[in-house]
Amino acid sequence: CGVFGIKPHPEAANMTYLGLYALQHRGQEAAGIVSSKENKLACVKARGLVSDVFTREQLDRMVGDAAIGHVRYSTAGSNSVENAQPILINCQHGQIAVAHNGNLVNAMQKRRELEKIGSIFNTDSDSEVILHLIAKSRKSNLEEAIVEALSQVEGAFSCVFQTADKLIAVRDPHGFRPLMMGTLDEATVFASETCAFDLLDATFVRELEPGEMFVVNNLGMRTSSKPFEARPMRQCIFEHIYFARPDGFMFGEYTQQYREDLGVMLARESGVDADFVVPVPDSGVSAAVGYARESEIPFAFGLIRNHYVGRTFIEPKQSIRHFGVKIKLNPVRHLFEGKRVILVDDSLVRGTTSRKIVKMVRHAGAKEVHMRISAPPTTHPCYYGIDTPTRRELIASSHSTDEIRRYIGADTLEYISIDGMLQSLRNSDPEHYCKACFTGDYVIPFPAEGGIEV
Ligand code: SF4
Ligand code: MG
């Protein structure tokens, strides 16, 4: 998911709308904005893309000087409008809205406990648990109530909260998901990625630190604190590899530069002679650029993408996905005839897309197809907010690379090594990353009775 928040700004809701536009790649299922009108918070949210959800009239009615927003892609909970965010509630502490990115690992357990003592849930999203815990808190001060609530949940949360008079941003102590801070005139701005600041002409200041809580109050006063017990830093390496937009800065790295470096490393680790390096668009482009540069093999856009089709992986239904590959990609036929091709993609998850692409390229006349993946084999599901499929569907969880090679129909298949992936980081410490989907080394164990089906 993507989150955004701004305060104080005379056009807070409009700015949030723009911010969500820039964060659209982080979730296409639903979008929402909470803003204030006459000191009351109001929410507009619906299923669909940012461009479809909001009307000019709705935005014009959101006149308050603070707003938060969310774009959703479902990892926990179904894709129904109830699960769209921000979630807005009334409780003893007044009105509170939250936009949450990440997955809570103990959400189901907490929810059962709360239901036993009478809580009524409106959604099946894990994020609602946070609001129930805040509403239940005996703390008189809202910030303390938020801290108390968040101290009881385990997992990934990069959140922005809005109340009648405050904007509060919080990042979980492991720092799984990103959360950026910037300024725009008098306003403090929060966003999942820096590309949102670029669009607004806001100035990127820094990332929120893992475990940091940042409060902007009505007087424009800003306070930062570290209210949680310190935990090992576990930023999501897959944000760098696939999820984040390439034109940004995150966890100390320039995303596109890192992806190109992965391609360079991949070429060093598993070079092969061929006529062309062809990226699987769009996610494989940066790595293919690096691979081609390092191997000195010509780069060619051999697969053309129809830009009016959403990211297939995010469509929740298997049937749409199967159909999707051909809808989305088409080979440049004359290029492939009789040629040896290296296909570069960022990750191989189920193998179904790759299989179709290899077939497509062979059908276009390629003589040899060499598949190169700029991530290690995805062997384990993510419990921290990336929608990887269940373990059973992850082809590398139960098949060797050679079996996968045969399944996708490539002449050779190589992944980058885990070491290669980590050595390609230029500025950040490899120890500070979560790599659990490649290693199975989960920093927070997943409770047997969990929030997500695996
Ligand atoms: Fe990211 Fe993988 Fe860790 Fe999930 S398991 S947070 S996708 S690195
Ligand atoms: Mg892709």
General description of the model:
By secondary structure, the chain is of the alpha+beta class. It has two domains: 2-231, Aminohydrolase, N-terminal nucleophile (Ntn) domain (Glutamine Phosphoribosylpyrophosphate, subunit 1, domain 1, 4-Layer Sandwich); 248-439, Rossmann fold. The protein has helices spanning 12-22, 50-53, 56-61, 107-116, 127-136, 142-151, 195-200, 237-243, 255-269, 285-295, 318-328, 333-336, 352-363, 395-398, 401-408, 418-423, 436-439, and strands at 2-7, 30-37, 40-47, 67-72, 87-91, 94-101, 158-163, 167-171, 180-184, 187-191, 203-207, 213-216, 222-225, 235-236, 249-250, 253-254, 276-279, 303-305, 329-331, 340-345, 368-373, 412-415, 433-434. The strands form six sheets. A seven-stranded antiparallel beta sheet has the order 3-2-4-1-10-9-11. It has a six-stranded antiparallel beta sheet with strand order 5-6-7-8-12-13, with helices on one face. Strands 17-20-21-22 form a four-stranded parallel beta sheet, with helices on both faces. Strand 15 and strand 16 form a beta hairpin. The model is unreliable at 449-454 (pLDDT under 50). The chain binds iron/sulfur cluster (SF4) and magnesium ion (MG). Residues 176, 236-238, 382, 384, 386, 434-437 line the site of iron/sulfur cluster.
